[in-house]
Amino acid sequence: MSESLTLLGNSQSSWPQSPDDARLETFPNRSPENHYWVHLDFPEFSSLCPVTGQPDSARIQIRYRPDQLCVETKSLKFYLTSFRNHRAFNEEIVNRILDDFIAACKPVEAVVRGDFSSRGGIRLTAQADYPGTESVRLLID
Asked: How confident is the model at residue 76 (pLDDT cuts 50, 70, 90)?
């Protein structure tokens, strides 16, 4: 199991420069027969506005029901931090995180929510879910 985990237990200090350079690492789910949820909360997310280049900040929450694989949290931290120099609209970011998360661990269900700080007096919250059922949409408030 630990052979596939390259970040956990290592004192790596260089961050990926973009989400394309980052890798979400996984490990086997030891309780795939159980119906349980994992909630991950990253309150210090940052990215760049694709038009102005100004920084955007957000709280990113990921909630998922694992199938055969779980996402290792240190690799998730490196992945989410890699957005700090990435130019994208907030909605695009939330959907990109969900797509990358699904590709990495193939969860039974997943929700990604981004609560972005106010810009121009408007707060934006974007939420994307997989597989897109109403029951999943209501899980993060």
From this structure: very high
Is 81 a domain residue? yes
The pLDDT score that the predictor gives to residue 8 is: 54
pTM of the complete model: 0.86
List, by residue number, the catalytic residues: 49, 56
Please name every residue paired with 55 in a beta bridge, in sequence order, or none if there are none.
48
Domain residues for the domain of 20 are: 15-25+37-137
The pLDDT of residue 69: 97
Q: Residue 124: name the closest of 116, 112, 132 by CA.
A: 116
List the one residue out of 33, 57, 62, 61 whose CA is nearest residue 44: 57
Total domains present in the chain: 1
- Is 92 a member of any domain? yes
Phi, psi of 111 (to 5 degrees): -135, 135
Instruction: Convert the pLDDT of each residue in 104-113 to its tens digit.
Output: 999 999 999 9
